[in-house]
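Q: Sequence in, structure out?
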Amino acid sequence: MPPVSKVQKLSQDDKAWLDAELIKRGFSGYDDLEAICRERGIDISSSSLHRYGKSFNERLDAVKMITEQAKAVVDSAPDDEGAVNEALMRLVQEKLFNLVIDAEIDTSKLDLAKVAKAIADLGRASVSQKRLAAEAREQARQELLQEQEQRLEELRGSDGMSEQLEDRIRGILLGKA
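A: Exactly. Output:
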């Protein structure tokens, strides 16, 4: 088993600073970055910084690609019955699966329970999203029906409309015709 990277041993604040600095520098200038790290009291060689920077940049590129794919899904299809959200969750599930496979992770050390929980959480999120969307549609429908009913009440008797005509209009507006 290889030794733990010095970058992984950094405090949360130092690691956040290093990540931001790598992005700011466009993942280059590792010799200068090594000197700045030394000034901050961080003893990491430029080659270690380069190895970490390369890995970090690859992960960042993968996240950007997933984000672009998700945006393309959203842009290409109107959200009908939560289809876009479902497609995005499937994309995340697929990427998670591919990440496990492509990373050549030693599956004996992989916490499959956590991976399964993440996938289950995505499934529950999908169900919740569909339920909330249905509730929102029903609420909007009820509000529209109440609004139409109120309009009919305002019109009642104001222009001498017959009761039969009024009932027919009511049926049309309320979807009962």
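The chain has two domains: 1-60, 77-177.
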